[in-house]
Design goal:
Layout (H helix, E strand, L loop, with lengths): L1 H29 L15 H4 L5 H11 L5 E6 L2 E6 L2 H10 L14 H4 L7 H11 L5 H24 L4 E3 H18 L12 H10 L3 H12 L10 H21 L6 H10 L34 H32 L1 H18 L11 H13 L7 E3 L4 E3 L9 E3 L4 E4 L2 H4 L42 H18 E4 L24 E6 L2
Parallel strand pairs: 2-7
Antiparallel strand pairs: 1-2, 3-9, 4-7, 5-6, 8-9
Helix pairs in contact: 7-8, 7-17, 8-13, 9-11, 11-13, 12-13, 13-15, 13-17, 14-15
Bound molecules: protoporphyrin IX containing FE and 2-acetamido-2-deoxy-beta-D-glucopyranose (2 copies).
The site of one 2-acetamido-2-deoxy-beta-D-glucopyranose has 8 residues, from α15.
Length: about 525
């Protein structure tokens, strides 16, 4: 009986796989859209599903296969998507025609995740986005820089104590980004470098350290988007929720104020957070979204504590590992490129001799540091998913000269390439080389800035990009001021990505030797 049942199930799965496979092919053919055949059930993502290749490279093979096409057919497992290769067309659908593509695909059902800004849809998203946006204006960011400096000092101290050792920087950096988020988002002062076993760090690790069961659930959720899997460990979710609610209660009762995101969420819940007025000293000048683009139609909405906890959770989830992986890659690249490091050091040293510290206003004057960071974000963007769901029928231009236009239907998913654009020699000559000079004022006209989208694009782009950039720059500043980063035997050169991970990580880790500067 059981055997027969299994045979039945396997037959159904195979039949579904084959049906889906041929259905997708005939669909793309009928509409004149190019595609790579892939395999039943795994589509174009077989090698990354089986951990044989990093997903970035697997997607890149498909991107490279059709150099003349604006968009192509891409099957993620069994899900059919239209993958856009042309930076101008990406801009068009994410900025100009944003109203047709406002939402991300709904994947996980964990309440803290599905109630977060990232997953919210339509009007509800507009409300929450405009509620939270004031939390990321210049005047708010200004107050957070001291937290970042303090946390950077902890890292510098630790590196001085362990000087001369070869260090796998991944873990150390995750302690930095963990502490920054703990402090700026949750109002918790932790020093994870000293206090290795603090609960905030441990629960955080648990959330991003996907087991094979969780990975399987993620793949299944892509195949069956309505399957309702909860993928995050319950105790970790409870922990974060508890922190948010108890901190809010405590502050409410004791009239405590602290310039962090909990405070901003509390103000938001009462509708007292000041509006989108940017202060004049807002000099960082990052491309953040025009607030008018997301302005909701209805009245100001009040949010429940649970909904606010979900936002604190997404700040943690979206902010902690992405920033860490960029920093790790920056240190790895600096160790491999001593000339770049020296130029950076000269700039930072000069600034430090003049000002004795780095402040919110000092950051934009560090041009080369900006180039180093952008070059890292170009080569190693932590962004795999840049999807949008179509809200109402939308006609794309023909995929290539002589092709016919294609109309995306409601509910269909489009996917924007990021990593492949950043590594396309058409936009960035010698893409494998780490050259911050690409972004210098003289050279800038030779690259295509619309093909640089590490934080996404349009009103739905990363809400915290300026926060992230500050956080990254502050640590880069202090570390390059105090240390020479050196290659050691374990440093992989060139950097190669670990297959079977969703995160951008070097095989065997990123090993660097830190030599203190005298
Ligand atoms: C280097 C660091 C980071 C990178 C590269 C990054 C990148 C991204 C990208 C690509 C998106 C999707 C954009 C799109 O679909 O167009 C996004 C969304 C988001 N990010 Fe970031 N991010 C970073 C750091 C952070 C940090 C530190 C936070 C929070 C403190 C954060 C919070 C969010 C949120 C809440 C969203 C969803 C926004 C919405 O749907 O309206 N991110 N991020
Ligand atoms: C991640 O999980 C694996 C097992 O699932 C465990 O062996 C490993 O120690 C964990 N790593 C961290 C950093 O928690
Ligand atoms: C670096 O990237 C940011 C966006 O992420 C952009 O605003 C800035 O102009 C870039 N810097 C240079 C020098 O191109």
């Amino acid at each position: 009986m059981i055997v027969e049942f299994f045979i039945f199930i396997i037959t159904v799965v195979i039949a579904y796989g084959l049906y889906n496979y041929y259905d997708n092919h005939s669909y793309f053919k009928k509409h004149g859209i190019n595609f790579m055949p892939g395999v039943p059930l795994f589509g174009n993502t077989l090698k990354s599903s089986l951990s044989l290749m990093n997903m970035i490279h697997e997607l890149d093979e498909i991107y490279k296969a059709f150099p003349e096409d604006r968009y192509i057919g891409l099957v993620q497992m069994t899900a059919r998507t239209i993958a856009i290769r042309d930076p101008e067309l990406i801009k068009q659908v994410t900025v100009k025609d944003f109203d047709y593509f406002t939402d991300h695909r709904q994947i996980f059902s964990d309440p803290l995740f599905s109630e977060s800004l990232f997953s919210m849809q339509g009007e509800k998203w507009r409300h929450m986005r405009s509620t939270l946006s004031p939390a990321f204006t210049g005047s708010k960011m200004r107050k957070m820089v001291p937290f970042m400096c303090q946390t950077s000092q902890n890292i510098v101290e630790h590196l001085k104590e362990t000087e001369g050792q070869n260090i796998n920087v991944g873990e150390l950096i995750r302690r930095y980004t963990n502490d920054v988020i703990a402090s700026t988002a949750f109002g918790i002062e932790v020093n994870s470098v000293k206090d290795q076993k603090n609960r905030f760090y441990e629960y955080g690790q648990k959330i991003i350290n996907f087991s094979s069961v969780q990975k399987a659930k993620i793949f299944l959720s892509v195949i069956f988007p309505k399957s309702g899997f909860q993928i995050f460990p319950k105790d970790s979710l409870d922990f974060f929720k508890h922190i948010v609610t108890s901190t809010m209660e405590y502050r409410e009762k004791n009239n405590v104020e602290r310039p962090d995101m909990i405070q901003l969420l509390m103000e938001a819940s009462k509708g007292t957070l000041d509006g989108p007025t940017e202060d004049k000293s807002d000099t960082v000048g990052f491309a953040t979204t025009e607030l008018t683009a997301v302005k909701p139609k209805g009245e100001v909405q009040k949010w429940s504590t649970d909904q606010l906890a979900a936002q604190a959770f997404i700040f943690f989830l979206a902010g902690f590992d992405s920033t860490a992986s960029v920093l790790v890659m920056a240190f790895h690249e600096l160790a491999l490129n001593p000339k770049v490091q020296e130029t950076l050091y000269q700039e930072v040293k000069e600034h430090h001799e003049k000002h004795g510290t780095v402040t919110y206003d000092g950051v934009p004057t560090l041009k080369y540091l900006d180039g180093v960071l952008n070059e890292t974000l170009r080569k190693w963007p932590p962004t795999l998913i840049l999807d949008r769901v179509c809200q109402k029928p939308y006609t794309l231009p023909p995929p290539r000269e002589g092709g016919k236009p294609y109309t995306v239907k409601e509910g269909e998913v489009i996917f924007n390439f990021v990593n492949s654009l950043h590594m396309d020699e058409k936009y960035y000559p010698e893409p494998e080389k780490f050259k911050p000079e690409r972004f210098s004022d003289e050279n800038k006209q030779n690259i295509k800035l619309s093909a640089f989208i590490p934080f996404g694009s349009g009103p739905r782009s990363c809400i915290a990009s300026r926060f992230a950039i500050l956080e990254l720059k502050v640590l880069l500043y202090y570390v390059s001021l105090n240390f020479i980063l050196q290659k050691c035997e374990k440093t992989r050169d060139p950097i190669e990505l670990t297959p079977g991970e969703f995160q951008v990580r070097c095989i065997g880790g990123s090993w660097v030797k830190f030599q203190a500067r005298k």
